[in-house]
Amino acid sequence: MTQTCLCNELRNISSPRTRSMLVQECGDALESLARQKEVGLVWVPAHMGIPGNERADRLARLGSGEPPQRPEPILGISRGSINGALSRWAYRRLGMSFMRNALEKCREASENERSQLLALVRSLETKIAEQNINTQEDRWALQQASATLVARSAALEREVEYNRTINEREREQLKTLKSSLLAEQEKIIAQLTEEKLKLSAEKARVETSNKLINSYESEKIKAEAEIAIQTAKDLSEKINEERRYMARQKKEVETLKRQLADRERELQDKESNLEYLIDNTQRKINNERKIIDEAKKLENRYKERLQELQNQWLALTEREKKLNEEKVLLSKERLTLYTAMKQNKNCVLCKANDLPVRGNYYMEENFSSLKVVQDTNGLRMDLDTAEDKKYSEVSKEENILL
Predict the structure, then answer these.
(1) What distance in Å separates the CA atoms of residue 380 and residue 375, rounded to the nearest whole number?
(2) At 374, is the secondary structure helix, strand, or coil?
(3) Is the dihedral of CA 319, 320, 323, 324 positive or negative?
(4) Residues 131-159 pLDDT 10s
(5) DSSP letters for 132-165
(6) Are 146 and 285 in contact (CB under 8 A)?
(7) Which residues form the RNase H type-1 domain (predicted)?
(8) What is the set of domains in the chain, with CATH numbers?
């Protein structure tokens, strides 16, 4: 029976159904020992006298027919190797807990970063929308003001042209009136001069006739002379009235000249004001164009910023996809590890105490997948270094975004 158990145990260990490093090392050690000498395996529970293990002790005695012994001379594997493998397995579990904590921290950091980036993107989109609305409103107001200024400038130009036409017409009328008044004045002056000459000649003739003839004829001539003198007086009065009329006309002409000069000054003032308004309007139009150009530049800048944010959003989406894939892979690994841990079967003592392995015992079936891991201090330093690198990269990206 011992030989049968030996063959079965050797067959099971030489062809393990798991990927456990400890089982593989045990199998390799047994194969090397089998090539050199015959190996006999016996069941050694090494925890006799504990309540609950009587059936295991009885089966062990029946199977081996020998009292319990230490495992070193029977298996050919040192107790230090087994304890080292089990310690490495414990360190592996501790490292897995550290890795799980680090992954949780990374996940929380990525979630916080993602929420901050989403809030930043939403705030930037709100600001860009408000800026676009303000730009459109300013553009509409500038277009309305520009159209109003253009209409006002056109109306002012038409008014200036109309005033110029009226002034030219009034100037022509004043010139015509002035020339007619001057011609009439010269004509009246000529008539007065001629009448004066006639009166002087008639007076001389009358005086001569008075001196020569003192008869009826002289009286008649004197009466005629008086009539002529009266007529001359009437004519002189008419001439004086004409002169006064001409003076009044001259005053009116001077008044019209002054009014025309005042009107010309007003028109010049209006022209200067119109030129000032046109220049001011042109400056306003230029300023509005500059404002529109600046608004367009600002809009292009915001569009570029929005494009950069969209690119960053795409990059973050890709990173999120990669993180999700890594999370899925880690979940699969954790599920595999959990399944392997569930498949482990401890001995009765370990089940009773439920403590980490430090004593003298064996696993009854297959061990879980083990890898050679460094000590806990080195593993903790590696995890802290990776976590610091991750946080430094996240802070750099936040500074770039801000």
Answers:
(1) 9
(2) coil
(3) negative
(4) 888 888 888 888 888 788 888 878 888 88
(5) HHHHHHHHHHHHHHHHHHHHHHHHHHHHHHHHHH
(6) yes
(7) 1-65
(8) 2-118+343-401 (no CATH), 129-300 (1.10.287.1490)
